Automatic annotation (TrEMBL):
<dbReference type="GO" id="GO:0005047">
    <property type="term" value="F:signal recognition particle binding"/>
</dbReference>
<keyword id="KW-0342">GTP-binding</keyword>
<feature type="binding site">
    <location>
        <begin position="186"/>
        <end position="190"/>
    </location>
    <ligand>
        <name>GTP</name>
    </ligand>
</feature>
<feature type="domain" description="Signal recognition particle SRP54 helical bundle">
    <location>
        <begin position="5"/>
        <end position="83"/>
    </location>
</feature>
<dbReference type="GO" id="GO:0005886">
    <property type="term" value="C:plasma membrane"/>
</dbReference>
<comment type="subunit">
    <text>Part of the signal recognition particle protein translocation system, which is composed of SRP and FtsY. SRP is a ribonucleoprotein composed of Ffh and a 4.5S RNA molecule.</text>
</comment>
<dbReference type="GO" id="GO:0003924">
    <property type="term" value="F:GTPase activity"/>
</dbReference>
<dbReference type="GO" id="GO:0005525">
    <property type="term" value="F:GTP binding"/>
</dbReference>
<keyword id="KW-0547">Nucleotide-binding</keyword>
<feature type="domain" description="SRP54-type proteins GTP-binding">
    <location>
        <begin position="97"/>
        <end position="298"/>
    </location>
</feature>
<feature type="domain" description="AAA+ ATPase">
    <location>
        <begin position="96"/>
        <end position="243"/>
    </location>
</feature>
<keyword id="KW-1003">Cell membrane</keyword>
<feature type="binding site">
    <location>
        <begin position="104"/>
        <end position="111"/>
    </location>
    <ligand>
        <name>GTP</name>
    </ligand>
</feature>
<keyword id="KW-0472">Membrane</keyword>
<comment type="function">
    <text>Involved in targeting and insertion of nascent membrane proteins into the cytoplasmic membrane. Acts as a receptor for the complex formed by the signal recognition particle (SRP) and the ribosome-nascent chain (RNC). Interaction with SRP-RNC leads to the transfer of the RNC complex to the Sec translocase for insertion into the membrane, the hydrolysis of GTP by both Ffh and FtsY, and the dissociation of the SRP-FtsY complex into the individual components.</text>
</comment>
<dbReference type="GO" id="GO:0005737">
    <property type="term" value="C:cytoplasm"/>
</dbReference>
<keyword id="KW-0675">Receptor</keyword>
Length: 298
């Protein structure tokens, strides 16, 4: 929560009021609504959500003379209303180990996010183990080890091509034996062969459940905000492959397309646990709906 000030959605906040000039006001009409819709669609909010946001904002206000600042405030209020229910940190349960399964397509930021989360948990005084469940990508395992070192957390790995489920079994055994607070499990994100991936993920989940029927306690889907509307189809796909319980949106620092979060919230209502705002270890912030809405509509 202390990091809330870092939350940003690609655009710098433009909090300055146009103090010296007389405020320009325009009547809210269909023409203006259409332009607002286009702006929201350009932020990757998607047509349906953009139409709904502008319609809600205009309700009872058609013909009113509004300044740009007032319009932004009204739009931000509508966006906040959609985002508030999904802005929830990842829930933690008293159980040990807490099993956090992390899924998402390759390149979405899974490894980075696991490193950042591990570091935050460590800072909160929790013990963490990371399992490098994408046993096929040697580079992914190496990256994870680098992040493990940064976060001061051990990374369990297996030889290339080892069955990820057997690595996860070993990781569960070790986490239980050592009384570790959290076990974070990285997974493969090859969507080229969905049947294989589904089999792999469901086998991992079966092994976890055998050890602890209440686990995995969280299944995080990591999404790259710069992929825009593509994120919607990734949610659909991964919900079929795994029991996704929450989202982490990465790369919000590098995009003006953060509107896709609104589309996601509107369509799926899955909690957004955190947002990635850079490549460094501290660049993971809680999702703040008001900051986000102001940045998006600013
Ligand atoms: P994975 O294949 O899903 O494990 O993805 P990685 O964690 O390796 O991330 C892919 C790339 O995205 C790397 O270059 C990361 O540094 C970068 N990345 C991840 N999260 C963020 C973020 O929040 N902001 C920025 N700017 N880059 C990020």
């Amino acid at each position: 929560k202390a990091d809330a000030g870092k939350a940003e959605a690609g655009k710098p906040e433009s909090g300055k009021a146009a103090s010296a000039q007389p405020t320009l006001r325009r009547a809210l009409d269909d023409d203006m609504l259409e332009r607002l819709e286009e702006l929201l669609i350009a932020s990757d909010m998607g047509v349906d959500t953009a139409l709904r946001v502008t319609a809600n904002m205009a309700e009872g206000r058609m013909g009113q003379r509004l300044s740009t600042g007032e319009i932004k405030t009204l739009l931000a209020r509508e966006v906040t209303r959609i985002m508030e229910p999904v802005a929830r940190p990842m829930p933690l349960y008293p159980k040990k180990p807490q099993v956090v399964l992390v899924v998402g397509v390759n390149g979405s930021g899974k490894t980075t996010t696991i490193g950042k989360l591990a570091s935050q948990f460590r800072a909160a005084g929790k013990s963490v183990i990371i399992a490098a469940g994408d046993t096929f990508r040697a580079a992914a395992v190496e990256q994870l080890e680098v992040w493990g070192q940064r976060a001061g957390v051990p990374v369990l790995k297996a030889g290339a091509g080892t069955d990820p489920a057997s690595l996860v079994f070993d990781a569960m055994t070790r986490a239980e034996a050592e009384g570790v607070d959290l076990l974070m499990i990285d997974t493969a994100g090859r969507l080229q062969n969905r049947a294989d991936l589904m089999e792999e993920l469901s086998k991992i989940v079966r092994v976890i459940r055998k050890k602890d029927p209440s686990a995995p306690h969280n299944t995080l889907l990591v999404l790259d905000a710069t992929t825009g509307q593509n994120a919607l189809s990734q949610v659909e796909t991964f919900r079929k492959l795994a029991d996704v319980s929450g989202l982490v949106m990465t790369k919000l620092d590098g995009t003006a397309k953060g509107g896709v979060l609104v589309a996601l919230a509107d369509k799926f209502g899955l909690p957004i646990h955190a947002i990635g705002v850079g490549e460094q270890i501290d660049d993971l912030s809680p999702f703040d709906p008001e900051d986000f809405a102001r940045a998006l509509t600013g």
